[in-house]
């Protein structure tokens, strides 16, 4: 009996190790590539460098343009997360707590956003952003990202809010607590896991977004890091070690943010899966 349980566990761990290797191997090769010569990268990308050369990492860290790209990405990503969390949580709270005519139809309509890839709307989005005068500004990236992130955010928030004890709201309502006050005083403080989960998803998606900034941003002063990476790659087209060092340093904030909120992600995704 014990051996029957042991075999599935071993297979599960082996499968997870294989999946993890496919994810970690490219990241490891990228990080190590920043210490190698171009010859070493071409011959064996996954091997340790013959000598640990910190020159490329130090040069990039000392470049003001790198910090400008990083700062622009941070502004855009944090603003997108803040707007998505606020609007998504407020809308999901209405769908979860208030029953009104057409609520199901409106909720289904909002979920249609999950069916359309971002790239399909890039041309009309560019025209609309141009018409309202937001081209080449942070808001040209922040507002569309928020709009496209709301569908998933509302879905996750609503599922989580529906599992909160109804008795809590009834007791608060008897004490004179309205919907808005209950939202701020009770719902949000109890929703830390789902707030962190949605925040991580939105942050990582915004941090890595390349297509939208490419279309709506023209000045290097407002370039996010993917566009900065494109500029950097054009300047150092033959220096793969310098390019890999740049990539490693720019993806670190997203990895750190993900690891910091990791314990909340599972709780947020499973919090609305089981009643009671």
UniProtKB/TrEMBL annotation:
Membrane topology note: Multi-pass membrane protein
Gene Ontology annotations of biological process type: transmembrane transport
Listed transmembrane segments: 74-95, 107-127, 139-161, 182-204, 244-265
Stored SUPFAM superfamilies: MetI-like
Keywords recorded for this protein, A-Z: Cell membrane, Membrane, Transmembrane, Transmembrane helix, Transport
Localization (cell): Cell membrane
One GO cellular component term noted in the UniProt record for this chain: plasma membrane
Domain (ABC transmembrane type-1): residue spans on this chain: 70-261
Recorded family membership: Belongs to the binding-protein-dependent transport system permease family.
Protein name (database record): ABC transporter permease subunit
Organism of origin: Jiella pacifica
């Amino acid at each position: 009996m014990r051996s029957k349980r042991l075999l599935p566990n071993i297979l599960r761990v082996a499968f997870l190790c294989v999946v993890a290797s496919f994810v970690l191997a490219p990241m490891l090769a990228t990080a190590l590539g920043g210490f190698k010569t171009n010859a070493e990268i071409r011959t064996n990308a996954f091997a340790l460098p013959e000598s640990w050369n910190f020159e490329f990492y130090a040069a990039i860290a000392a470049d003001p343009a790198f910090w400008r790209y990083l700062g622009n990405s941070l502004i855009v990503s944090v603003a997108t997360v803040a707007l998505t969390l606020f609007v998504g949580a407020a809308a999901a709270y209405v769908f979860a707590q208030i029953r009104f005519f057409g609520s199901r139809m409106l909720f289904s309509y909002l979920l249609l956003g999950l069916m359309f890839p971002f790239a399909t709307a890039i041309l009309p989005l560019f025209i609309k952003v141009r018409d309202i005068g937001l081209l080449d500004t942070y808001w040209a990236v922040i507002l569309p990202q928020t709009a496209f992130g709301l569908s998933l955010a509302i879905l996750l928030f609503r599922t989580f809010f529906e599992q909160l004890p109804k008795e809590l709201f009834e007791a608060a309502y008897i004490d004179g607590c309205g919907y808005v006050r209950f939202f701020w005083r009770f719902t949000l403080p109890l929703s830390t896991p789902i707030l962190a989960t949605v925040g991580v998803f939105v942050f990582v998606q915004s941090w890595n977004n390349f297509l939208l900034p490419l279309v709506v941003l023209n000045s290097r002063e407002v370039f996010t890091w993917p566009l900065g990476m494109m500029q950097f790659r054009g300047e150092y087209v033959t220096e793969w070690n310098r390019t890999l060092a740049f990539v490693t340093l720019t993806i670190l904030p997203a990895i750190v943010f993900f690891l910091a909120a990791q314990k909340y992600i599972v709780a947020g995704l499973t919090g609305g899966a089981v009643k009671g």
